[in-house]
Amino acid sequence: MLCVSVQEGWNIRIPSIPTSWEAYFNTEASMIYLGFIFCHVIFDLLPLGKVVDGQPMRDGTVLKYRCNRDMIHDFFVGHELSPRVGNFDLKWFSFRLSFHIWMMLDLLYLTKAWETYNTIPPTLALAALSQMFYPILNLYFEFYNELISFRHIMPYFYPLFLTAWLVDREKSDGEYCKQKYKKSWERYCEEVKYRIVPYVY
Known about the structure:
Layout: E1 2-6, E2 9-13, H1 27-45, E3 52-56, E4 62-65, H2 71-77, E5 84-85, E6 88-89, H3 90-117, H4 122-143, H5 157-181, H6 183-191
Helix pairs in contact: 3-4, 5-6
């Protein structure tokens, strides 16, 4: 709902809901999306990369994957949850597809900002690049013969980056609240002793 100001005071106006199906469906956008998914189906079926054996299934069969897996991954994901249509693995396909869509959305945000304002705000650029960095690392290290493990720090860049950003944001917000609320903020800090994680920080 929208609140609009009129001479008599404030009035509440309920937005109209489109009744035409064309407002909810765009043929061109749908074809682009379906074509994007179809391309991923083709790429997933291409015989590229090293084929490795997965964990044995309950019936004794062993699934083939074009990526590495480990005990930790199998424990959380479960090798029973590997639906396939022939050699087409639905779970891995959806995982890869979601990462590619994630990166494309970030690029679309940057493109829209450039088209609208003829510039890209630095904060938007930093957020988009940081978000694209995470799926790129996952696609590279988990799908191309490199395990996500403690042997390499790069896959952990995103959580480390967010942790550092959160701590810095907490400090700046705390200083702002201290200057604005003064004694009230001090009383609050006496009651709430931990800033982010209880008994840790």
